[in-house]
Request: fold
Amino acid sequence: MGHVEWTEFVLVEEVPRPGQIAHGHGALAEPAGGGAVVAAQLARLAGGCDLFTVLGADALGDAAARRLAELGVSVHAERTGETRRALTFVDAARERTITTIGPKLRPARPLELAGYDAVFFVAGEPGVLRSARAARFLAATPREMATLRAGGVALELLVGSATDDGERYDGELEVGVVVATEGAAGGWANGRRYEAAPAPGPLEDTYGAGDSFAAALCFALARGEDLDAALALAARAGAAVVTGRGPFAAQITS
Reply:
C-alpha cells in the first residue's frame, strides 16, 4: 500500500542550476512513486499484487490505473482530487533528481488484509498501517517514520536508504530485520555488511532501484528464504532496474 505519482522522466546533460535552461530529450511518462514501483516488482515476482492507493479523480489517475494493470498490478484506489505529479531529471551520470508536484495521496481507510502472505507499507495513515498487521509478514520503509510510530505495530522488515536523510532510523520500533541500503556499495542488514550485485548491463537510469530492492527482499523473506538468500535476490533486483529507462523496464521476474 502506498502512493502513486504520474512521473515525467527526461534525460539532461546536467540538472539545471538556478537561472539555467536545460535541454532534455527522451521523455517518458508513466505512474511511479514508491507504491507503484514496489507493487510492480512484487507482481513480477509473485505473479500478482494488490495495490491499495489513492489516485486523483482525473485523466492522469485513469492513465495510472491502466498502466499499472498492464504491469500485473490489481489497483484498489480511492479517487479524489488531482493525481500527484513528479518531474524526474536523469543526468549524464544516470542519476535521478526528482521534484514532486502536489501533496502525497495516502490511503486512509483501514483495510481487510487478513489472509495476505505479505504487505509492504509504503505510505498511508496510522489506521491503515494497523490494519496491515493482519498480514502474516509486514514490511515498511522509514520514509513514513511518523506513521510507523503512531501505528505502533511490529514489523518483520524495515528497509530504507542509509544515504537519504529522510529515511534515517534510530532503532525505536519493534522490527525483525532492519536493512540500510547504500546503492552500488551494498549496505547493512541487521548490523552486518552485504554486497551489491553487479548491474547486468550499461547504466541507464537509477530511478526505482531502491524500491525494487525492497520489494524483492520482502518477497523473499515472506516466502521463507534465509536473510542471505533474500539479500542476494534483492541486490539482483536493484541492480537490474538501473539498466532500463524508468522504474519498470528492467525489473526482474525471478
